[in-house]
Specification:
Blueprint (H helix, E strand, L loop, with lengths): L2 E2 L5 E6 L8 H5 L3 E5 L9 H11 L9 E5 L6 H11 L7 E4 L5 H11 L4 E6 L2 H5 L1 H4 L6 E6 L1 H8 L9 H13 L3 E4 L8 H14 L3 E4 L5 H7 L4 H17 L4 E3 L2 E3 L1 H15 L9 E2 L8
Parallel strand pairs: 2-3, 2-9, 3-4, 4-5, 5-6, 6-7, 7-8, 8-9
Antiparallel strand pairs: 1-12, 10-11
């Protein structure tokens, strides 16, 4: 199993009709700046939005952030037109987000046309998408992450959009995605005025195993980044765990009165590897996780 180290904490969505606003991702420190062709664009404006996205990706990047685009559903004409248009761009997006994924099919179509240089993120937002997630994350396409689509999942199931109603789906997505060595991302918090609600949702997602979250407004990004990054206390404790393990050598040691075994030590090592030393988020930083040994 391969692990994609520190894929991203935050993705800032910008409607394709105002694609140039994505430069705000640099100001807000979003890890990925995404141009959206799907839900933020009305049907009558799809062609115009596609043309603006093509123009945007026909020029070199204007920010230091990784550039992404969310296309329309590949079961629709707009989705297929989006995909074909991106194939002709001089500077392809580094990441393409594919909505309403319910099987490996759409990812394999996108991957075959875009090539191995483009990463894919699958939006899982329907009951069938959740039920088939294990097959989806096993695709041979260059899938690097999944993202839960809370709004569409609520629409297709009749559930409310609150956390408790969708807890099973979120848990299923995390388990399958992490099991495949990929990166699970949380749905955006849509009420941009409710910062406390977003903090609660992001914290719950982090505790459940999500590694990042989408943002629909620039002011959400720094909060999301903070929640999905360890505190200095977390880093200091991880250093103590690793140091104590190296001194003890038995695989189990006692820190702060707690017996700590191999899974805790390995978790500390990964945290330090990903967050202790700032570094660019390279597109090809795949790496095998170290062996954890016996607990």
């Amino acid at each position: 199993m391969k692990k994609f180290s520190r894929y991203c904490r935050s993705i800032l969505f910008t409607p394709a009709l105002v694609a140039e606003r994505s430069v705000k991702a640099d100001i807000t420190d979003a890890d990925i700046a995404l141009i959206d062709l799907e839900d933020s664009v009305a049907a009558v404006h799809k062609a115009e939005a596609r043309n603006r996205a093509v123009a945007f990706f026909s020029r070199p990047a204007m920010t230091s952030r990784r550039r992404a685009v969310r296309i329309n559903n590949l079961g629709s004409a707009d989705g297929l037109l989006d995909l074909l248009a991106l194939c002709g761009c001089a500077y392809k997006p580094e990441v393409v987000m594919v909505p309403k994924v319910e099987s490996p099919r759409d990812l394999e179509i996108a991957g075959s046309l875009l090539g191995d240089a483009v990463e894919l993120i699958a939006i899982i937002e329907t009951p069938l998408g959740i039920e088939n997630i294990s097959a989806t994350v096993s695709t041979r396409a260059r899938l690097t992450a999944t993202i839960f689509g809370a709004a569409d999942f609520a629409l297709t199931t009749g559930m409310s959009i609150d956390w408790q109603s969708q807890h099973y789906a979120r848990s299923r997505l995390v388990t399958a995605t992490r099991g495949a060595g990929l990166h699970p991302l949380e749905s955006p918090w849509f009420d941009v005025r409710d910062t406390e609600g977003m903090i609660t949702a992001a914290t719950r997602a982090r505790e459940l195993g999500y590694g990042g979250m989408a943002a629909v407004h620039p002011h959400q990004v720094p909060i999301i980044n903070e929640i999905f990054s360890p505190s200095q206390d977390d880093i200091d404790r991880a250093k103590r765990l690793v140091a104590a393990s190296a001194r003890d050598g038995s695989g189990i040691c006692v820190i702060d009165g707690i017996a700590v075994g191999a899974p805790f030590i390995e978790s500390a090592r990964r945290l330090l590897q990903e967050f202790d030393a700032p570094r660019p988020m390279a597109r090809d930083c795949y790496e095998e996780p170290a062996k954890m040994g016996e607990a």
